[in-house]
Amino acid sequence: MNEQEKINAALKAVSFVKPGQVVGLGTGSTAYFAIQEIGKMVREGLEIRAIPTSEATRQLAEKWNIPLTDINDISTIDVTIDGADEFNSRLQLIKGGGGALLREKIVASITGTQVIIADASKQVEKLGAFRVPIEVIPFAANVVTRKLSALNGEASLRAKNDSTYITDQGNNILDVDFGLIDDPAALAKALDHITGIVEHGLFIDLADYVIVGKGDQVEIIAAKN
Ligand SMILES: O=C(CO)[C@H](O)[C@H](O)COP(=O)(O)O
C-alpha cells in the first residue's frame, strides 16, 4: 500500500467531475483523497450534488461542505469515484473491505461513469487473494455460511473491536475465501442466487475506468466494451 499512489490516482480522478453533475462519493482510504480534493473544488466554486456511499463518507463530505442529495430523488449519477480491494485486467473488482459494498454497488448501478482509484498493490492477475466480502442479514449468517461452503467458500463473520461488525444497513459481513477465482462473473451469478445474501463484493461490468497509481506515475485503464 502506497499513500502517494492513492493520492495521485485520486487527483487524476477528480478531473472527471464537471460542474452541475451528480457525483457518487466512494468509501475508504483512497476515496478519502478524492473527496478531500472535491471538497477543495467546491470551496473554489464548483457546483455539484453528491451521493455518499457510507455514513463515514457522508460525514467527510459534510465536513468539506460538499452539497449532498438523496439517491431516491435522482435517477442517474453522472460520475462516481470509488476505491477497490482488488481489480483485474477485465476491470472486475473485489470491494467491501471497508464494509460499504451494498451502497457502493447501488450507487455504481446507476452511475454513468464509474471511476475506480487504487494504488498498484490492488492490481492482480486473478481475484481472490483478498477475501470476498458478502453482506448478509444477521438472521441468515449461518445459513449463508453453509451454502457458501458448497461453493468451496470458507466464510468468516467479520468482527470489529471484539464485536460482530454491523454495516450501515444493520447487516453483517462474511469475508469469504474462495481461493483464486477462475471465473468471477460466474461466481457473482451464483452468489446472486443465494437467499440471505443482501449483496456481494464482486463488481462485474461496473467499472468504466481504473486509475492506478504506480510509483509517481498514474495509469488510466479503460474498460473494453
Ligand atoms: O470497497 C470499499 C469499501 O467498502 C473500499 O473502496 C475498498 O475497501 C478499498 O479501500 P481502501 O481505498 O481503503 O484500500
UniProtKB/TrEMBL annotation:
Catalytic machinery residues: 104
Family annotation (Gene3D superfamilies): 3.30.70.260, 3.40.50.1360
Gene Ontology MF terms in the entry: ribose-5-phosphate isomerase activity
Reactions that this protein is recorded to catalyse: aldehydo-D-ribose 5-phosphate = D-ribulose 5-phosphate
TM ranges: none
CDD domains: RPI_A (cd01398)
EC numbers, comma separated: 5.3.1.6
Signal peptide range: none
Keyword Plastid among UniProt keywords: no
Keywords, ordered alphabetically: Isomerase
One protein family per Pfam: Rib_5-P_isom_A
Known pathway: Carbohydrate degradation; pentose phosphate pathway; D-ribose 5-phosphate from D-ribulose 5-phosphate (non-oxidative stage): step 1/1
Binding site residues for substrate: 27-30, 82-85, 95-98, 122
UniProt keyword Ribonucleoprotein, yes or no: no
SUPFAM superfamilies to which the protein is assigned, alphabetical: D-ribose-5-phosphate isomerase (RpiA), lid domain, NagB/RpiA/CoA transferase-like
Family note: Belongs to the ribose 5-phosphate isomerase family.
Quaternary context: Homodimer.
Function statement: Catalyzes the reversible conversion of ribose-5-phosphate to ribulose 5-phosphate.
Name of the protein this chain belongs to: Ribose-5-phosphate isomerase A
Organism per entry: Niabella pedocola
Phylogenetic lineage: Bacteria, Pseudomonadati, Bacteroidota, Chitinophagia, Chitinophagales
